C-alpha cells in the first residue's frame, strides 16, 4: 500500500515538473514573438510616417501650384475688367461730347426755326391779302362773264355738266362695246376650241326627208289591183293607214303622202306585202296593215335598244326606249329626229369630257332631249316641257330632266349640263344641210329685223341682207352723229340678241353719210 502511494506521489511530481518545464518553454517563445511583433510594428509605423510625410509634401506642392494658377487667372480677369471699365468710360465720354454737340445744334436749329416762323407768318399775311384781292377780282370777272354770256354761273355749270355727262355716256358705251368684244374674243377661245374639236370628231348624215314616199312598182298593171273595183282597195288602204295614195301618170310608181313618217312606213311595208302576195282586197288589207303595225312596233323597240347600246346609255325605261325608236320615223325641219338626237348625244358626250364633266349623263340627256316630239297623245305643252315631264315620270336623273326642259329656255337651268345640251342641240340643228326653214318663217324673221331697226329715232331705212345674217341701217346725218351711230349699232345688236331667236349671228352695220349737192349754171 505504501509503495503504491509513493509511486503515485512520484508520478504526480514528475508530471508537475514536466508541465512547469513546458510552460517555461512556451513563455520564452511568446516573449520572442512579442519582440518580433514590436519590431514589425515599429517598422510599419516608420514607413507610414515616411509615406504620410511624402503625401503631405505632394499635396502642399499641388496646393501651391493651384494657388499660383488661380492668382494668374484672377490677375487676368482683373485686367480684362479694368480694360472694359476704361472702354466704357471712353464711350461715355464720347456720348457726352455727342450730346453736348447735339444740344448746341438744337439750340441753333431752334433759333433758325423762330426766324423761319417769323418769315412764314409774314408770307402768310401777304398771301391772305393777295387771296382776298384775287377773290374780289374773280367775283368781278364772273359778273362780267355772266353779263356777256347772259347766263348765271349755276346755269353754265349745269350746261357744262350735262355736256360732259353726254360725252362720258357716249365714251362709256364705246368703251363698254370694246370691253365686251375683247372679253368675247378672250372668253370664246377655249369654247371655240372645244366646239370645233367636238364637231370635227362627230360625223352625221345630212339627208333631208320630205313628206312623201314613192312606192315603186314592177309594172303599171299593178295600179289597177291596188285601186280595186270602184276604188274600194285604195280607200281601204287609206282608211287603215291614214295615208293618202296618189295614183297618177307617173310610170311604175305610186306616191304615199302623209306628214307622219311612221304612217308612211306602215303604208309602204303593207303595200309591199300586198303586192308580193297578190291578194289585194279590203279584209286582207286590214289584216296586213295590223300585222305590219305590230311588226313595226317591234322594230321601233329594236331601233331604240340598238341606239341606246351604241351610245352606251343603259337603264332606260321601256317607254323611253320606244320613244327613241319612234324618232327614226319623225323629222324636224327636214332633219331626221333620231339622227339629230344621236348627233346631239355624241356632241354632248365629247363636250362634257373636254370640260371634265360626266359624259355618260350628258349623252343620256342629249339622246332624250327631244322625246317630247314623239308623244303618244297630242298635248298643248311644248316639246321641251313635255319631254321633261315624261323623263321625270319614268324616273330619270333630275339633271337630265332639267336639261330636257331647259334646252329652249322654257325652264330655268339648274345643272351644269343644261347649257351643254342647249349648245349641242343648236350645233346639230344649225350646221349646213341639217334643216330646212319654212319660207314664211324666213320672211317673217327678215321683216322683224327691219321693223326692229326702224323703231329707233333717226333711222331712215333698214335692210336685212345675206339671208338675215347682216342688218344694214341707214340713218339721217342731221339727226344722228358719229358717236350716236356707234351707240345705235350697239343698242340694236343688244335688242336683237334679247328679243329675237335666230341661228348663228347677225351683224349690225349703221351707215351715216352727209351729202351736199349744188348745181352751177
Instruction: Work out the number of β strands.
Output: 8
User: Whole-Å distance between the termini?
Assistant: 221 Å
Indicate the proportion of strand residues.
5-15%
Percent of residues in helices: over 70%
The whole-angstrom Rg is 61 Å
Class per helix and strand makeup: mainly alpha
Uncertain stretches: 203-209
| Mean pLDDT figure | 80
Spatial strand order of the main sheet: 1-3-2
Instruction: Note the total helix count.
Output: 14
Shape: flat
Q: H/E order of the elements?
A: HHEHHEEHHHEEHHHHHHEEHE
Q: What can you tell me about this protein's structure?
A:
The protein has 14 helices and eight strands. The protein is mostly helical. The strands form three sheets. It has a three-stranded antiparallel sheet with strand order 1-3-2, covered by helices on one side. Strands 6-7-8 form a three-stranded mixed sheet, with helices on one face. It has a two-stranded antiparallel sheet with strand order 4-5. A hairpin with a 2-residue loop joins strand 4 (331-332) and strand 5 (335-336). Helix 8 (337-354) packs antiparallel against helix 9 (359-368), helix 9 (359-368) crosses helix 12 (417-430) and helix 10 (383-393) packs antiparallel against helix 11 (398-406). The longest helix has 148 residues, at 2-149. The chain is flat.
Amino acid at each position: 500500500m505504501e509503495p503504491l502511494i509513493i509511486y503515485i506521489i512520484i508520478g504526480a511530481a514528475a508530471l508537475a515538473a514536466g508541465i512547469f518545464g513546458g510552460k517555461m518553454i512556451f513563455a520564452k517563445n511568446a516573449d520572442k514573438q512579442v519582440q518580433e511583433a514590436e519590431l514589425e510594428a515599429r517598422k510599419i509605423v516608420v514607413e507610414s510616417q515616411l509615406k504620410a510625410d511624402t503625401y503631405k509634401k505632394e499635396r502642399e506642392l499641388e496646393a501651391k501650384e493651384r494657388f499660383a494658377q488661380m492668382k494668374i487667372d484672377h490677375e487676368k480677369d482683373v485686367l480684362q475688367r479694368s480694360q472694359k471699365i476704361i472702354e466704357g468710360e471712353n464711350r461715355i465720354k464720347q456720348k457726352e461730347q455727342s450730346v453736348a454737340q447735339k444740344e448746341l445744334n438744337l439750340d441753333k436749329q431752334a433759333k433758325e426755326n423762330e426766324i423761319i416762323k417769323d418769315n412764314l407768318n409774314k408770307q402768310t399775311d401777304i398771301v391772305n391779302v393777295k387771296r382776298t384781292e384775287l377773290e374780289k377780282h374773280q367775283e368781278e370777272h364772273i359778273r362780267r362773264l355772266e353779263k356777256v354770256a347772259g347766263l348765271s354761273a349755276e346755269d353754265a355749270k349745269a350746261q357744262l355738266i350735262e355736256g360732259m355727262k353726254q360725252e362720258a355716256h357716249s365714251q362709256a358705251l364705246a368703251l363698254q362695246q370694246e370691253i365686251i368684244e375683247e372679253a368675247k374674243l378672250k372668253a370664246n377661245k377655249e369654247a371655240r376650241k372645244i366646239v370645233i374639236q367636238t364637231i370635227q370628231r362627230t360625223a352625221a348624215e345630212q339627208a333631208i326627208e320630205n313628206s312623201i314616199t314613192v312606192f315603186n312598182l314592177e309594172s303599171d298593171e299593178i295600179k289597177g289591183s291596188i285601186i280595186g273595183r270602184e276604188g274600194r282597195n285604195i280607200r281601204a288602204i287609206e282608211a287603215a293607214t291614214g295615208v293618202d295614195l296618189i295614183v297618177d301618170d307617173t310610170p311604175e310608181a305610186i306616191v304615199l303622202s302623209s306628214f307622219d313618217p311612221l304612217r308612211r312606213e306602215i303604208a309602204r311595208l303593207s303595200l309591199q306585202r300586198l303586192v308580193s302576195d297578190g291578194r289585194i282586197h279590203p279584209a286582207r288589207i286590214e289584216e296586213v296593215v295590223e300585222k305590219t303595225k305590230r311588226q313595226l312596233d317591234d322594230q321601233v323597240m329594236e331601233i331604240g335598244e340598238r341606239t341606246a347600246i351604241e351610245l352606251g346609255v343603259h337603264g332606260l325605261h321601256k317607254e323611253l326606249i320606244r320613244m327613241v325608236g319612234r324618232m327614226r320615223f319623225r323629222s324636224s325641219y327636214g332633219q331626221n329626229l333620231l339622227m339629230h338626237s344621236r348627233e346631239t348625244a355624241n356632241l354632248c358626250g365629247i363636250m362634257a369630257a373636254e370640260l371634265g364633266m360626266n359624259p355618260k349623263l350628258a349623252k343620256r340627256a342629249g339622246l332624250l332631249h327631244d322625246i317630247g316630239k314623239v308623244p303618244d297623245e297630242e298635248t298643248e305643252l311644248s316639246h321641251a316641257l313635255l319631254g321633261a315631264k315624261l323623263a321625270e315620270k319614268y324616273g330619270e336623273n333630275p339633271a337630265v330632266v332639267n336639261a330636257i326642259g331647259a334646252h329652249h329656255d322654257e325652264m330655268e337651268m339648274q345643272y351644269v349640263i343644261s347649257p351643254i345640251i342647249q349648245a349641242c342641240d343648236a350645233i346639230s340643228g344649225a350646221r349646213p344641210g341639217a334643216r330646212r326653214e319654212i319660207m314664211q318663217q324666213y320672211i317673217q324673221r327678215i321683216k322683224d329685223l327691219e321693223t326692229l331697226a326702224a323703231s329707233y329715232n333717226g333711222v331712215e331705212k333698214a335692210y336685212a341682207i345675206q339671208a338675215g345674217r347682216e342688218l344694214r341701217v341707214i340713218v339721217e346725218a342731221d339727226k344722228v352723229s358719229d358717236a350716236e351711230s356707234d351707240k345705235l349699232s350697239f343698242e340694236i345688236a343688244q335688242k336683237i340678241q334679247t328679243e329675237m331667236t335666230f341661228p348663228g349671228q347677225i351683224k349690225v352695220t349703221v351707215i351715216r353719210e352727209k351729202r351736199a349737192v349744188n348745181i352751177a349754171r
